[in-house]
Amino acid sequence: MRGKIWSKVALLLMSCVLVAGCSSGAGKKKEETKSTLKVVFGDESWFYQEYGDLFTMKNGENIEFEVVSTQGLYNDLENKTYEEAFNELIDKEKPDVLMLDLNSYEQYISDGKLVELDTYIEKEKYNLEGIYPGLIEMLKEIGGSKIYGLSPSFYGNAVFYNKDLFNKYGVEMPHEGMSWQDILDLARRFPTDGDEKTRIYGYGDNYPVSMDQLLSMISSAEGLMNVNTDTMKVTVDTDSWKRVFQLAIDADKSGVVYNPQDDEGFTGGTMEEYYQSQPFLMGRVALMVSSPYMISNLKDVKDRLKDFKPFELGIVSGPVDPADPTSTYNTSLGQIFAINADSPNKDAAWDFIKFVNGEDFARVKSRSGNNMMTRMGFNKDIDGQSLDPFYALKPKMSKNYRNWDKMPDNFYGEYNMIMTREIGLVKENKKTLDEALKTIQSEAQAALDKGLKEKEAKKDKAGEEGASSDNASGGGTSESATDAETTE
């Protein structure tokens, strides 16, 4: 009898627990509300692979994503610039989370289209100390001392060097904060004799480095613009450009830069053949500017090539802008995550942004690929090689791509033809550099002016055709309405 009573009591208690549990669960479900975040991104599947799936695994499914893809924008510009098409997409779809490049980020701040994140950061005591300091400083400068966006990753270069070659030829080792002048000065300390396919080069890259490419790398590292896109004026006839041209010409003439005339670089084949075509990996180049991917290549080549001769690798920060040796233009951001000022889901948008810029996300992503995470302490090294040089300098925003879409499509092709011709004359001692720069300036300006007029005429014509089409489609309705009014 007593056993039956206890059985009934136990059954009653279990029922109460289950009922309480169900009631508690039901109450919890009522409290939880699902939010749908609209996110602008290049491709939906890529978004989930990079960000969405990890966020959902960590935070549950209370936030669902709707991805506004930008994939087709380039295919449907209709005489608009990409920037105009992108802005129209944002105005139409009104995404909550924006992913912007630096130029768009700066413009959207100026237009008042972004939510200031400082309030969220201060309220939640969100830790910014672990994020690349130079990056935070740059974002604050753009935002007028305020933060409007964060970026979880960046792309950076540094100066790689073969310590064994430096020791063999008695050249002092590179130092932190190398400028292109420093790099090429050291490169000239190495021999230039021998067969093109077996000799040592002071400076090199994965492919032959033409003088035009060298000129582009040096000028980019110093933040020089060949066109001021605010005024649409060519700007190469200056002392700064003259110094850069002279540096590139002298380096090219000296023969220290890897640029064999009959070698177009790797054009196809196995990975083993690809690695064998890389002069730095094969121990034939003393210095090169590259990304962390080169460390991974060096690690891989050790495993793939049986006859590989290992060497000791060194990395220092650079190339720097000589006008500001603590900074570099050779660092660029991935997407900058920001909140649309018109978003009705600002808190949910912040939850997403703080996660993808947080420690858990950085911990996972630092284990895959060669992305440099802006949250430091997770990309400490690759194959034992410290990545500190990639975080040593303050990134600077290049102005080279500002208003890029406004440039005529064929201008840079024409500019490069003019420049190559004129610099060739300088190398042949048929012109002075001053004379060449004046010719480049005047002829490039004429080409730019012509291209801008043609682009404007094309745009006007497209507008007239569009207006004509609208009138044709709406004209009948207008006349019918007028006839009806007249009849009445």
Structure explained in plain terms:
With 488 residues, the protein is α+β, with helices and mostly antiparallel strands. It has two domains: 35-156 and 332-391, Periplasmic binding protein-like II (D-Maltodextrin-Binding Protein, domain 2, 3-Layer(aba) Sandwich), CATH 3.40.190; 158-329 and 403-447, D-Maltodextrin-Binding Protein, domain 2, CATH 3.40.190. The protein has 16 helices and 18 strands. It has helices spanning 2-31, 44-59, 82-93, 102-110, 118-123, 133-142, 163-168, 180-187, 211-221, 239-254, 271-276, 293-304, 346-356, 359-365, 411-427, 433-487, and strands at 35-41, 63-69, 97-100, 149-150, 153-156, 158-162, 201-203, 227-228, 233-234, 285-290, 313-316, 327-328, 331-333, 336-339, 372-373, 381-382, 385-386, 394-395. It has a four-stranded mixed β-sheet with strand order 7-10-6-11. Strands 3-14-4 form a three-stranded antiparallel β-sheet. It has a three-stranded antiparallel β-sheet with strand order 13-5-15, with no helix packed on it. Strand 1 (35-41), helix 2 and strand 2 form a beta-alpha-beta unit. Helix 9 crosses helix 10 (239-254) and helix 15 runs antiparallel to helix 16 (433-487). The protein is globular. It starts with a helix and ends with a helix. Residues 1-31 and 475-488 have low confidence and may be disordered.
